[in-house]
Amino acid sequence: MLKSKHYPKMVWLSATVIVAGLTSCQQQAKSDDKKVAANADTADAKQYLSQPIISNIYTADPSAHVFEGKIYVYPSHDVEAGVAENDNGDHFDMRDYHILSMDSAGGKVTDHGVALSLKEIPWAGRQLWAPDAAFKNGTYYLYFPLKDKNDVFAIGVATSKSPAGPFKAEPKPIAGSFSIDPAVFTDDDGSTYMYFGGIWGGQLQRWKNGKYDANGSKTDLQQDDSPAINCKVAKLKTNMKEFDGEVKDAVIIDSGGKPLLGKDHNRRFFEGSWMHKYNGKYYLSYSTGDTHLLAYALGSKPTGPFVYAGTFMQPVEGWTTHHSIVEFKGKWYIFYHDTQLSGKTHLRNVKVAQLKHEPDGRIAMIDPNKK
Ligand code: FUB
């Protein structure tokens, strides 16, 4: 995944990476968290639409939900692990999750501390990436992508009686799951679906007919004139821990009914999917990855097909774009991240802004770099 956009602040990244490798991971994460606040004070005067919602730790990939009358955010917890940046995303070497909550978007944020850590997950290899959460029948479920001991991403699930955790992981990943970035959506009829997948470091391009090819492409399929790789969707059983049937493609087509092509980097799915429903339509939104946009496509069923409808957020500062969309007290919000506090690709901070649906259903464009 990560080719640099060569932001000016990144020139000092390599030196930091070499030094950081000498310290134990836990100590590094702690001191790293302390540095966030200091960096916040020295951040340049560049204009941003919003400010980081917390600065005591680095956070990214925010999945927001309304539980028990509050907004709960399930983010990645970025740390300086001292791993060099590459297209596999090895530098995103996260080891635990913290859950955040707030009474209002933009209000005071509570950091509930460590909710789940790598060492508590029996099948763990490395890299706890973008999580999501859901609630059913009195239990909260935390879904997380993680590389297993063979360095292959799968999606795990953990449970808690509280939206803030702590969560207890199941002994194995969800059977039939693969790749990254789970996003869980419960429809009005109570059916729950997981959207997932990501190309490049997310390994989606290496999966064919249920099999993983460790020697497959590191980026995409490099088949420009063939259909692009699709986001995946699977229905969850009511136990929320298993897929109910086959994993399907959430196919994205153009207005002429043709699938988007591999070469269409401005429109094709890359990673970071999210589903929300508005006025009876299913909005599949996602990151275009190497072109750094947030795009969306509309469907009349939760499993698609989805017709490409446009982009709705300009690139943020940093390489990755990852978002979620939530309705709270009659208003819609987007949670997203950028690198305002650190200037480093892998040390991100979560933000929130209002999101507007136009009367015709389009999502109004958001510029994260303008007040
Ligand atoms: O945080 C690690 C990865 O970066 C996520 O899984 C992707 O969506 C991207 O944000």
**In CATH, what is the class?**
Mainly Beta
CATH architecture type:
5 Propeller
**Global mean pLDDT:** 90
Question: Which of globular, elongated, flat, extended, rod-shaped describes the shape?
Answer: globular
Quick one: how many beta strands?
22
Question: What class do helices, strands and sheet pairing give?
Answer: mainly beta
Q: What order do the helices and strands come in, and which of them pair?
A:
Layout: H1 13-20, H2 25-42, E1 58-67, E2 70-78, E3 96-102, E4 109-117, E5 132-136, E6 139-147, E7 153-160, E8 168-169, E9 183-186, E10 192-196, E11 207-208, E12 211-212, E13 231-236, E14 248-250, E15 252-253, E16 271-278, E17 281-287, E18 294-299, E19 306-313, E20 323-328, E21 331-338, E22 349-355
Parallel strand pairs: 15-19
Antiparallel strand pairs: 1-2, 2-3, 3-4, 5-6, 6-7, 7-8, 9-10, 10-13, 11-12, 13-14, 16-17, 17-18, 18-19, 20-21, 21-22
This protein binds beta-L-arabinofuranose (FUB).
Beta-L-arabinofuranose is lined by residues 60-61, 76, 89, 92, 129-130, 180-181, 198, 271-272, 320, 322.
Task: Characterise the protein shown here.
This protein has 371 residues and is mainly beta. The protein has one domain (30-355): Tachylectin-2, Chain A (5 Propeller). Helix content is 7%, strand content 36%. A hairpin with a 6-residue loop joins β17 (281-287) and β18 (294-299). 47% of the residues are buried. The structure holds beta-L-arabinofuranose. Beta-L-arabinofuranose (FUB) binds at residues 60-61, 76, 89, 92, 129-130, 180-181, 198, 271-272, 320, 322. Beta-L-arabinofuranose binds at residues 60-61, 76, 89, 92, 129-130, 180-181, 198, 271-272, 320, 322.
